[in-house]
Amino acid sequence: MDLFSSLKSFFKANNSTIDNYVFRLHYKATATVLVAFSVLVTARQYIGDPIDCIGPSKDQLPENLLDTFCWIHSTFSVPSAWKEKIGVDVPYPGVANSKEHSDRKYHAYYQWVCFVLLLQAILFYIPRYLWKVCEGNRMKNLILGLNAPCMEREVKDKSKKLLVDYLVANLHNHNVYFTSYIFCEVMNFVNVVGQIYLIDTFLGGEFTQYGLKVIQFTGWDGTLRYDPMIHVFPRVTKCLFYVYGPGGSVNKVDAMCILPINIINEKIYIFIWFWFIILAVLSALVLAYRLVLVFLPNTRFMVTSCRVCLVKHNHHLSLILSKASIGDWFILDMLSKNVDSLYYREIIMDLAERLDGKVGNGDLKSLMI
């Protein structure tokens, strides 16, 4: 628990909101879970030995020596013995006589699981890091304390005036800001899809169909079903160790190894399979939503008006959006997530009046009609 308690810093509340819920699922939820999994796999003292091998007697070969050798040089399974009858033909799926079965599938990935999980966590945080660099605390500086529900009137009016002055002076200057955010959202989608194929390569092409096979496995008859997870994460494997015999000849030790660590690995990767699929779908929906906002300007009005109830003041929002670019709308949308709703309504009204004064009083009157 002491190891996992250090992860609580990932969930600290931020003073300002600069992204959406799906974005936070990438860098906050997913990265934290992957780091926790990496800690879990490496914490050998809490889960016992990661490998136990059965070989000759301790007098002939020390047990720790065989375990260490097989862990370092990897173990293997016999694919042709995966579906043979247990207890009759083979003692366990994938474990058979090496002389009768020449085919072998080596398993070396379990030595690298903790490092790969940590690398994945870093990759999930990179888009967030880039967005923070591009954002440059702009939203935090624009809020000016207007996220507090109670403020002195003089302070509120001053902060509101400064914010409106900024929005008017920088009209049409926020497109780069919006483009940077979209780029980071695209990175999130590319990252999660790319990591699915990264894990598939890491696990020897077994990951992309892993979740589907497990789902199918749960519906099979109990007497006939065959656990597909042992293909990817075998719990019992074989290991060959060569030693010198008493007469100086080379003797082969055909050992059988139990991998308790794979009980954890198989659960970790079945969770990752389902989570990555859900995350990829959500990320794709977010990108589709962004495309709608870019090519259908009317949807921007609907989104902002629904986010903060403007009641009879929607004409002010209509005026603003008719004069603003999509980058300006994005700033206003982010402000709606950070500024108190009552103050936000006043900001919209003041900004509309300022813009109407710049372009002529007839525009606002026509929109009100």
UniProtKB/TrEMBL annotation:
Domain of life the protein comes from: Eukaryota
Alphabetical list of InterPro entries matching this protein: Innexin
GO cellular component: gap junction; plasma membrane
GO annotation terms (biological process): monoatomic ion transmembrane transport; phototransduction
Compartment(s) where it occurs, according to its Swiss-Prot or TrEMBL record: Cell junction, Gap junction; Cell membrane
Membrane topology annotation: Multi-pass membrane protein
TM helices/strands, residue ranges: 109-131, 268-292
Entry keyword Membrane: yes
Principal cellular location given in the protein's record: other
UniProt KW Lyase keyword: no
GO molecular function ontology, one term from the record: gap junction channel activity
Job of this protein: Structural component of the gap junctions.
Protein known as: Innexin
Lineage, top ranks: Eukaryota, Metazoa, Ecdysozoa, Arthropoda, Chelicerata
Name of the coding gene: inx
